[in-house]
Specification:
By secondary structure, this protein is of the alpha/beta class. The protein has helices at 15-26, 80-89; strands spanning 7-11, 29-34, 37-41, 48-52, 72-76, 96-100, 106-111, 117-122. 17% of the residues lie in helices and 33% in strands. A 4-stranded mixed beta sheet has the order 1-4-3-2, with helices on one face. The protein is globular, with a radius of gyration of 16 Å.
Amino acid sequence: MRITDTAVSLVVPDPAASARFLVDHYGFAEVMSAPGFSSLAREDAGVHVVYLAPGLETMPPEQRDVLAQGLILAFVVEDLEGELARLQSGGVEITMPLTVEEWGERAFQTRDPNGVVVQLVDWNGPGATMAG
């Protein structure tokens, strides 16, 4: 098998609101859209984020109304403090402050209008063994 692209698809009540959040605050661009559907990408992210409205007939019936919950969209960045300052100055609520884990992960979180957690992270804390 050869994987040629990657996407994560999330069913949310208001796909347009989540899409605007990633466009306005995280530099994503909408690459495809239709009623109840929005696909976003960044050249440097390595993943497409797709938002789907509940009840889409194109999805299997058992998946149509299962909303995204309990997941974290995590993006590794080079300047974590700079991104934190940029988001704060842009009025984005920081829902988890910058934390440092004993294994070297440093991260903070925001939430989009549908409650999807968006986390920015680096591996520059004491004890880090991974390169970002």
